[in-house]
Amino acid sequence: MSNNVLITGMPGVGKTTLVRKITDVLDGVAGFHTQEIREGGARKGFRLVTFDGHEQVLSHVNIRSPHRVSKYGVDVEGFEEFLRERFDVSGASVVVIDEIGKMECLSPLFQSKVRGILADPVPAVFTIARKGGGFIAEVKARADVKTFEVTRANRDGLADEIISQLCP
Asked: Is the pLDDT of residue 1 over 60?
């Protein structure tokens, strides 16, 4: 049984909602989840929110950056500052990162932190892009992870299954 859980699925299927259901039940959670930034009903970017309330804009259509994913400029420097100053998982009972995706993988510091979390005995939950090479493929190929694919059909019952994986 692995204490590292990967949650994947199509965009919009409910991965972040599933993560929130899991974190609502567990104690001692550290990490962050991702929120869309919407303006006038349109998605304009993404922000990261730690479970103790700190926020950082990761990407936005108005960010001018050499780092781009689709229409979004990615603030890699701001993300790494967030990881150094606001991302503390010491003493956590469970670490949750939503998500390992193309934007996050632009940061070598993020990749290093994820590798450390995966190697640690503390249970960890990650949402991860359904597709992708490089670091995304590396994480998915690890022997110490169990992957759950979220679909519209299984998303309502998956939280209990994942929690039982983490807390046998």
From this structure: no
Which residues neighbour 63 within 8 Å (Cβ) at sequence distance 6 or greater?
Answer: 45, 57, 72, 73, 74, 75
- Phi/psi of residue 165, each to 5°? -65, -40
Question: In a 3-state reduction of DSSP, which class is residue 64?
Answer: coil
Alpha carbon 114 to its chain's center = 10
Separation between Cα atoms, residue 86 and residue 6, nearest integer Å: 23
Q: What is the tens place of the pLDDT at every residue in 117-136?
A: 999 999 999 999 999 999 99
- For residues 117 and 89, is the Cβ–Cβ distance under 8 A? yes
pTM across the whole model: 0.93
Gap between the Cα atoms of 147 and 126, Å rounded: 9
Q: How many CB atoms lie within 10 A of CB 13?
A: 18
Residue whose tokens read 């299984």: 154
Residue 89 has pLDDT above 80, yes or no: yes
